[in-house]
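Today's session is about reading a structure prediction critically. Students often jump straight to the picture, but the first step is always the sequence itself: look for stretches that repeat, for charged clusters, for runs of hydrophobic residues. Only then move on to the predicted structure, which in these notes is written as discrete structure tokens rather than atom positions. Here is the chain we will use throughout the hour.
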Amino acid sequence: MIDFPYLNEICRKTDSRIVLLVVDGLGGLPHPQTGRSELETANIPNLDALASRSACGVTTPVATGITPGSGPGHLALFGYDPLKYVIGRGVLEAVGIGMDLGPDDIAIRCNFCTLDSDGVLTDRRAGRIPTSESAPLVEQLSNITVPGVEIMVQPVQDYRFVVVIRGDGLGGDVTDTDPQRTGFAPLDPAGRSDAAQRTAHKAARFIESARDILGSRDIANMILMRGFSRRPDWPAFGDAYSLNPGAVAAYPMYRGIASLLGMNVIPTGRDFDAELDTLSDHWDDHDFFFLHYKPADAAGEDGDFDAKVGTLEELDRRIPRLLDLGADVVAVAGDHSTPSTLAAHSWHPVPLMINSQSTNEGLGSPGFNERHCRSGYLGSLPATALPLLLMAHSGKLDKFGA
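Below is the predicted structure for this chain, in token form.
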């Protein structure tokens, strides 16, 4: 949609409101002992009831067989082809915590991690140490200096932090140091161009200093770097769809995505109840809301099937409160699947449902899960198609052509 100006011309403003609830890592796979996924196992009567009167389907975030990161997965849901609008996670994290990035700054998303005595990764997230433990470590890292550049280090949340490298002649096309699995040593950063190689060299110097600072610890004794990137200049979501969009997300990275796309990022608290409070308080300020739910993805990445089931049940108990706000269109989607059985993101299609006055029980599905949504009214569609569907269901699209 973002790249089709003629479709932009049929978008029109109305008083109707849209809420897009993105459940991070929503999709799953059957448990080997039960044959049921996390969604099928969870007791989610409110989501199931909503599915019975909604148009349901499954989305593919990037392309068949491609496992997306959270950035590409979210961009697709907002209509941005993630194969064209490529962005590293570093910028998303940096913008999400309010860092002022210059046009040539290189932002890097970092994890604290744990290595064994042989330098092999045993935990990519350092036990998910809380911010109270990681923030003092970040403060120590902020004292690192690298000749020829300025280094800025800021905490994000829990085991995550951001490093920004500022200097002349730098490039962002640098490989990650995170091998994405345990049992391997961290990788060396490598640039794919001369400018990026200069960045990689500076990053390597920072990593060496971080090793000196952290190496004597039992956990969080090293760092991983990923998502080297600079701030892009992209078309605004609100302009493309003639919407006044607001974003409510507790976690910084998703605020970063919304900010890059020109949404009004509304300050909120640390959990989903706080997000719902914020949504209610600002209900009259916007005609489109992006609402984010994180816990399902974290449990899936930890490989904890029961915990992911629990997060879905926690979400379900809050669905009536969301529906009571009276949105004209409510969509529940996911940026990607995170099956607990894989303990990682995956390429599997993601459940979707759209509820509006244009849907009824005749279009609905028996339940909100992978199996029922695959055979739902919407079928299988690219995630980039979602914004136009939301616009159509809310009466915000005129006829195209004569």
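Discussion point for the tutorial: DSSP finds 15 helices and 13 strands in the chain.
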